[in-house]
């Protein structure tokens, strides 16, 4: 009886925080919002955090989903999430960032890329703007090739290959990232126009192709050093990233 009461309490707490987003014959389950105090440049900023799970069963019987968690071995897989700031649903203007996970840059602070800088700077811009969301996309490591393959690509880069050459030499396309699920979640949180923080035209195209109203783009260059100059220049020359005047190498 005690176990039944515990399960009932767990379900009653969680059910109002779970949302089903149906995608044809599969589902995205979104859990949140959850208050997340974040240390942002030495100050505590309160974000609202959501996480989502792709699942092949479409059901509003959330007890079934919860019951499967312990046996689903989710720690073996990456789940994406989103940090929301301010009145994201209703604000007339909002900034968003589609940020690809970067184990080396975001966690270790690597200077080989600008990812760690872009992560924190996006959060700062969203806070200063007053409303926005940062999507942290967990299956995007190495532009979609995964962490182990990224490590091998780094070995090639240390031997003269640029980022694109390294990925392609390992049998991958230059950029394998897909934004469909993130945009689906975005549309469930907000229908008004958004301004995208990015230098990448592919992200803009993905949003516009989905029918999402895009009010504009905010560039995000910075943290240039001897370690990432070639990386940043390759983004522009080979990957078509949009150059911001005076903020990128070789202006």
How are the secondary structure elements laid out?
Blueprint: H1 2-14, E1 18-23, E2 26-40, E3 43-55, H2 62-69, E4 81-85, E5 95-100, H3 103-107, H4 115-129, E6 132-137, H5 141-144, H6 147-157, H7 163-169, H8 180-189, E7 194-197, H9 201-209, E8 214-218, H10 229-237
Helix pairs in contact: 6-7
Structural class: alpha/beta
Strand arrangement across the biggest beta sheet: 1-2-3-4-6-5-7-8
Query: Any idea what the radius of gyration is?
Result: 20 Å
Determine the number of helices (DSSP H or I, runs of at least 4 residues): 10
How many domains? The number is: 1
What's the CATH class label?
A: Alpha Beta
Here the CATH topology equals: Rossmann fold
Proportion of residues in extended strands: 15-25%
Helical percentage: 25-40%
CATH homologous superfamily grouping = GTP cyclohydrolase II
């Amino acid at each position: 009886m005690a176990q039944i009461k515990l399960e009932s309490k767990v379900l009653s707490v969680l059910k109002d925080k779970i949302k089903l987003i149906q995608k044809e014959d599969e589902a995205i389950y979104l859990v949140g919002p959850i208050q997340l105090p974040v240390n942002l440049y030495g100050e505590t900023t309160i974000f609202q955090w959501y996480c989502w799970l792709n699942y092949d069963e479409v059901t509003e019987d959330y007890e079934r989903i919860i019951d499967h968690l312990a046996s689903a071995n989710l720690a073996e897989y990456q789940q994406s999430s989103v940090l929301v700031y301010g009145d994201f649903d209703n604000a007339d203007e909002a900034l968003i960032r589609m940020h690809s996970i970067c184990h080396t840059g975001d966690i270790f602070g690597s200077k080989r890329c600008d990812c760690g800088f872009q992560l924190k700077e996006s959060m700062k811009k969203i806070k200063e703007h007053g409303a926005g969301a940062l999507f942290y996309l967990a299956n995007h490591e190495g532009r979609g090739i995964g962490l182990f393959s990224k490590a091998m690509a780094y070995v090639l880069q240390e031997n003269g290959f640029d980022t694109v050459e390294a990925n392609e030499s390992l049998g991958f396309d230059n950029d394998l990232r897909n934004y469909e699920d993130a945009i689906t979640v975005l549309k469930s949180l907000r229908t008004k126009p958004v301004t995208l923080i990015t230098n990448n035209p592919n992200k803009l195209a993905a949003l516009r192709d989905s029918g999402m109203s895009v009010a504009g783009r905010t560039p995000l260059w910075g943290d240039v050093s001897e370690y990432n100059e070639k990386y940043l220049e390759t983004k522009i020359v080979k990957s078509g990233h949009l150059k911001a005047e005076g903020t990128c190498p070789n202006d």
